[in-house]
Amino acid sequence: MKNVTDSFVSLGHWPSAGSFGFNTDILATNLINLSVVLGVLIFFGKGVCASYNLLSLSDLLDNRKQRILNTIRNSEELREGAIEQLEKARARLRKVEIEADQFRVNGYSEIEREKLNLIDSTYKTLEQLENYKNETINFEQQKASNQVRQRVFQQALQGALGTLNSCLNSELHLRTISANIGILGAMKEITD
Length: 192
Known about the structure:
The protein is an all-alpha fold. The protein contains 4 helices and no strands. Helix content is 89%, strand content 0%. Helix 1 packs across helix 2. Residues 7-14 have low confidence and may be disordered. It comes from Arctium lappa (Greater burdock).
């Protein structure tokens, strides 16, 4: 209330007294405008019938009441629809969560199955590689053994030939040839 009286008092203290200016105090100017509007309504509204004013006020209140009730009804219907949609969304969410759990469980079991298959196939591959390795080692050992035998045989043969060549002279050589011819001749006679 003090603001209202201050605004009226401040009218006389404006620097440009007697001229037109703006009051920047919003509350004071709104109260002044409201008082002017009410004064005009009261002045011009005196000629209107009091019962008409009460009747129109009652109609206005009834209309306002109906609009509020309609708004409340609409809000309730919207609320019920929203609750229904929320329940449907929750049901869909539960369904999706169940499906996700099933996919997760199936995925884990599939991963475990694949892991076991991979381990099994890796084990088989390692076993085959071990067999190939053993076969290769055996083959290489046999090959090396054959090469050693062949070299030993060649060296023994060369040693024997060397010994024979050093021990044989031409007379012994002729006797050996004659003895062999004799043996062959005897064999020929037996077969005839």
